[in-house]
Amino acid sequence: YLEHTYHIRIRSSQSMTAFMESQLAELKAKMERSSRALSEFERELNVINPEEKTSILSARLLQLNSEFTSAQADRVRKEAAYGSVRSGSLEAAAGSDQAQDLRTLLARRNQARERFAELKAHYGANHPEYRKAAAQLAEVEALLGEARRKIAERVEIEYREAVNREQMLRQAVNQTKAEFDRLNARSFEYQTLKREADSDKALYEELVRKIREAGINASFQSSNIRIADPARPSLEPVSPNLALNLTLAVLLATVFGIGVAVVSDALDTSVRDPEQLRRMTNAEVIGSLPEVKGWRGRPSSVRASEGALVATGSEETAHSVTLYEEAIRTLRNSVLLTDFDRTIRSILVTSPTPSEGKSTAAAHLAVAHALQNHKTLLIDADLRRPSVHRSFNISGAAGLSDVLVGERGWRELLSRPEGLPNLAILPAGPPSRRASDLIGRGIASLLDEATRDYDWVIVDAPPLLGFAEPLQLATVVDGVLVVARAGHTDRKAVASVINTLRRLRANVIGIVLNEVHHRLGGGYYYYSYRRYGKYYHSPKAA
Ligand SMILES: Nc1ncnc2c1ncn2[C@@H]1O[C@H](COP(=O)(O)OP(=O)(O)OP(=O)(O)O)[C@@H](O)[C@H]1O
Ligand SMILES: [Mg+2]
């Protein structure tokens, strides 16, 4: 690894150096180009540093300008003097060098004039004194004229000089200004060139430094990796950790299993646990009927011969029918046991929803009671979907509906199925809306009479939810059995049905769980039948 890193470093620094070197050559050429351009420019301008030259020029220009201004003023002054001298006035010459001489001459002339005027008053023109004074005056006048001429000449010369000087200065100013402007204009160019040359040079120097550095670094860098401690294989493998994996698997599986169980239990709202039902409805689960394979979906049929039911179908069906029969007998006994003083003579069999096994349970309960030599009457009060007559294979042409509308007496419509001498059946008869409406009161009087003749009157009713009749029937019978299909009927439906029945003061004997199979409702209910079933059904054992 160390070597590898070292080689990588060396290679990368080599490629870096190579790249930089190629850049270097280019840069060098560029730098040379730019500095050559700069020196050419300097030569062309004939200056070492145009910036310095510019400042010198500007100082000179300033000085020339002020000189020019003063020369201009001087020239104006002298021009004025010259102008006035030319027009004959000597006042302008008062400030000049000849002024003193002029003033002396003027004083002398005034003296001479006074003296001449004085002598003129005393003497005649031919008097020597007069003539002397006149000659003196004429001489002074001549001198004065001469002085005046000289002054005028002088003033003119001075004026011409001033004009000359002004002109020369103007020329000098203009020249300097032109040079200054030219230099200024080129100065930008010069600065650009100089900047470029400087930056090229700096870049080149930087690159040279970098290349040197890279060379030095390449030889040093390999030293920052050291082997602190050579690696040794562990005594035990780190993975797979069998103990940890097993523990995790057990824990996760348990948690997952519990989760699934809790969720599925929370999602399943059907009746399954008798204990739970008791808690929810405050009603006892009085019986559990096992599931009979092969029954569901087919109309049930009940046949009896020689004092016992005939089971049809396969062996498995026959076996579970025996278990069902046994459960029905237990149910019958339970009802009898809860009724010590024998007040329950009429029993209504109903359920919260359709198809929960009411008719089947009612028929078998009636048969079971009749087989114990008790006079039993089975009334089919499900006028909408009658089924009892079909189960017993009897005619359903006339029945309860005819009795309710008052056309026939109930006794003449009874059927007695074969092999069951103690069982009488009142079928539902033709469906009739009027009969349904009359069912509450009509059946009350029927039950009154029937309970006198029969030990038990079992009434098969329609489902409670959605029909009004079963509620009316529930108030006129002595007890109500509520059938609920295990794992199917909703717990809340059962609870609400039982609450309604209680509100109507119906006597709820208990709940019958139908179609219990050993997965549901706890082993106790199912296996107990199986045991007893075997016991009763083995003739050898009997
Ligand atoms: N314990 C059971 N095991 C298997 N199937 C059953 C069981 N009890 C009833 N059945 C079947 O369920 C179906 C409905 O039964 P049944 O007619 O007795 O129900 P019901 O509550 O009277 O229905 P309805 O509301 O139509 O009057 C029938 O096919 C019947 O054979
Ligand atoms: Mg029915």
Oligomer status: single chain
Give the overall shape: elongated
Strand-pairing-aware structural class = alpha/beta
Assigned CATH architecture of the largest domain? 3-Layer(aba) Sandwich
Query: Any idea what the CATH superfamily of the largest domain is called?
Result: P-loop containing nucleotide triphosphate hydrolases
- Total of helices: 14
Could you describe the largest sheet, including whether it forms a barrel? 7 strands, parallel
Short description:
The protein has 542 residues and is of the alpha/beta class.
Fold and architecture overview:
The protein has 14 helices and 9 strands. The strands form 2 sheets. A 7-stranded parallel sheet has the order 1-9-8-4-7-5-6, sandwiched between helices. A two-stranded antiparallel sheet has the order 2-3. It is elongated and about 220 Å long. The chain has 2 domains: 2-224; 288-537, P-loop containing nucleotide triphosphate hydrolases (Rossmann fold). The chain has helices at 2-45, 50-86, 99-122, 128-220, 242-267, 274-281, 315-338, 358-371, 388-391, 400-404, 433-453, 469-476, 491-503, 523-537; strands at residues 285-290, 303-305, 308-310, 346-350, 376-380, 423-426, 456-460, 479-485, 508-516. Strand 2 and strand 3 form a beta hairpin. The longest helix is centred in the first third of the chain and has 93 residues, at 128-220. The model is unreliable at 520-542 (pLDDT under 50). Helix 1 runs antiparallel to helix 4 (128-220). 62% of the residues lie in helices and 9% in strands. The chain has 542 residues and is an alpha/beta fold. The structure holds adenosine-5'-triphosphate and magnesium ion. The site of magnesium ion has 5 residues, from helix 8.
